[in-house]
């Protein structure tokens, strides 16, 4: 492709003129170009903001960072796929006509890969938020830095692998341009891309299944569950606010009783600032719950924009697939029939005329609008972040000089996050249950060991040992009687020592008695 080859003008085929109708040229130049330029600027800002150390603390922002990079690359590829060929065909510059096929050949597979990556990153963000809202205890245990990193890498690798075949669909060949009187490079479809079976498998089945059906169904189910969980949370929060209003009414009643008989008692009670209905857990989690709620609403808005902007492309894809399947079925039937060739050509011409009635204007307009909406989806995420993310707003205000930024201590923030993580893990129901089982198991093992020692001691003690124990006990009692008789004057002074000896003797007697 890059080698320089000298061709004879007679050997080269004539270059086909670039076919862009008025609808395509108008929408791409006056609609697609401003959106592409604006989206390029906003996504560069998004990438810079999400690379900030304060934004990297949240795992959701890792997904949003890679999603912004994917949108940025997609907008660049859309420019070279859709807008740049129109500009080149309308100009009289030889270099633009010669180099736009090279950009188109490279931007086509890269753009499809980044579009797939953006779709599945949106799905991963929704699943991540679903785990955080509907299964918070499992999310604290499962969703950490390494799983998030592997999920992002997996989506990128999957997007590249699933679109490897698109590198074989376009080819660059030389042709002779009569307007420039010199050879030019042009883009053509390969025989693989023109194969009807390949198109049926890759475009009609695989592309529709991977790019539309699986993501759309997953996003709809997951986000419906998130909306239901948010409604339940709102209902519980309203109940909590009613309790708080009841509590404030009770405290007001207590303050009104200060002038009564027991006003001094109520005054002391009021100075204690005792609040029995307000629990520390609510005070602790109120800020975190509001922050999680804003993040959830932000991701719901991103998913809603994604679904709205891709619905038209989904409908166009279904309509194109139906047309392709009907055409493929008609060609197969015409090939299997034993009819004359003029009749087959007449049937195909009738089918093309029926299709061209709709395809002439409406379908081209629908396709261009769908491409415009896809570019708009990649360009509008900045507004969602500005509305729902306070950190994003504060960083932008600091750049514009509207607000002085408050730097946080990274070491202290990391320590607090680690302590909060440890506390949350320590009070999880699964962790408490496992800890209780471990304690019961250790207690059972300890009791079993003690029982085993007592049994072994009982079995190893013989009758001779018992006789010796009894004789030792008798000698000890005789010695104590003799000491008492001989040392009567000093009995009072040595009373404490005798009590200790007597208690030790009793312990020995009790021990041997239990063994007997």
TrEMBL record:
Keyword Transmembrane: yes
Keyword terms: Membrane, Transmembrane, Transmembrane helix
Localization terms from the record: Membrane
Keyword set includes Manganese: no
Transmembrane segments: 29-51, 63-90, 102-127, 148-168, 205-228, 297-319, 369-388
Region described as Disordered: 469-516
One Pfam family from the record: 7tm_1
Compositionally biased region (Acidic residues): 477-486
Coiled-coil boundaries: none
InterPro entries: GPCR-Ligand_Int (IPR052954), GPCR_Rhodpsn (IPR000276), GPCR_Rhodpsn_7TM (IPR017452)
Domain G-protein coupled receptors family 1 profile: 42-385
Recorded GO MF terms: G protein-coupled receptor activity
A cellular-component GO term for this protein: membrane
Name under which the protein is recorded: G-protein coupled receptors family 1 profile domain-containing protein
């Amino acid at each position: 492709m890059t080698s320089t080859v000298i061709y004879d003008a007679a050997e080269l085929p004539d270059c086909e003129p670039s076919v862009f109708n008025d609808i395509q040229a108008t929408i791409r130049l006056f609609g697609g170009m401003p959106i592409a330029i604006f989206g390029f600027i906003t996504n560069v800002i998004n990438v810079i903001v999400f690379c900030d150390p304060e934004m990297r603390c949240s795992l959701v922002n890792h997904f949003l960072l890679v999603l912004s990079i994917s949108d940025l690359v997609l907008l660049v590829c859309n420019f070279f796929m859709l807008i740049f060929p129109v500009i080149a065909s309308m100009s009289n510059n030889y270099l633009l006509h010669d180099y736009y096929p090279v950009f188109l050949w490279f931007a086509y597979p890269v753009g499809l890969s980044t579009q797939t990556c953006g779709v599945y990153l949106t799905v991963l963000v929704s699943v991540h938020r679903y785990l955080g809202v509907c299964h918070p205890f499992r999310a604290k245990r499962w969703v950490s830095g390494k799983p998030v990193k592997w999920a992002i890498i997996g989506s990128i690798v999957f997007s590249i692998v699933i679109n490897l075949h698109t590198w074989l669909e376009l080819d660059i060949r030389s042709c002779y341009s009569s307007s420039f009187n010199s050879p030019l490079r042009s883009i053509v479809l390969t025989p693989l891309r023109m194969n009807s079976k390949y198109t049926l498998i890759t475009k009609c089945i695989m592309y529709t299944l991977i790019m539309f059906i699986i993501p759309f169904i997953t996003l709809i189910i997951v986000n419906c569950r998130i909306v239901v969980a948010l409604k339940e949370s709102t209902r519980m929060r309203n109940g909590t606010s009613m309790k708080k209003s009841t509590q404030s009414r009770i405290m007001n009643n207590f303050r009104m009783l200060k002038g009564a008989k027991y006003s001094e008692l109520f005054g002391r009670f009021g100075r204690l600032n005792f609040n029995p209905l307000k629990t520390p857990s609510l005070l602790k989690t109120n800020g975190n719950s509001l922050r999680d709620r804003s993040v959830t609403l932000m991701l719901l808005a991103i998913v809603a924009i994604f679904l709205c902007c891709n619905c038209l492309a989904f409908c166009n894809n279904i309509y194109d697939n139906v047309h392709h399947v009907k055409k493929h079925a008609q060609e197969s039937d015409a090939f299997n029939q034993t009819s004359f060739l003029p009749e087959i050509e007449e049937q195909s011409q009738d089918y093309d005329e029926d299709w061209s009635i709709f395809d002439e204007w409406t379908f081209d307009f629908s396709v261009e609008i769908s491409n415009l909406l896809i570019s708009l989806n990649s360009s509008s995420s900045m507004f969602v972040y500005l509305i729902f993310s306070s950190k994003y707003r504060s960083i932008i205000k600091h750049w514009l000089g509207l607000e002085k930024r408050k730097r946080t201590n990274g070491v202290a923030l990391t320590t607090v996050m680690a302590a909060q993580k440890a506390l949350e893990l320590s009070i999880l129901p699964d962790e408490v249950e496992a800890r209780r089982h471990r304690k019961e198991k250790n207690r059972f093992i300890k009791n079993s060991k003690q029982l085993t020692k007592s049994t072994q001691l009982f079995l190893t003690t013989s009758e001779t040992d018992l006789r010796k124990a009894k004789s030792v006990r008798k000698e000890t009692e005789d010695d104590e009687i003799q000491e008492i008789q001989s040392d009567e004057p000093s009995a009072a002074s040595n009373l404490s020592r005798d009590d200790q000896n007597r208690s030790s003797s009793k312990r020995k007697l009790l021990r041997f008695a239990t063994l007997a």
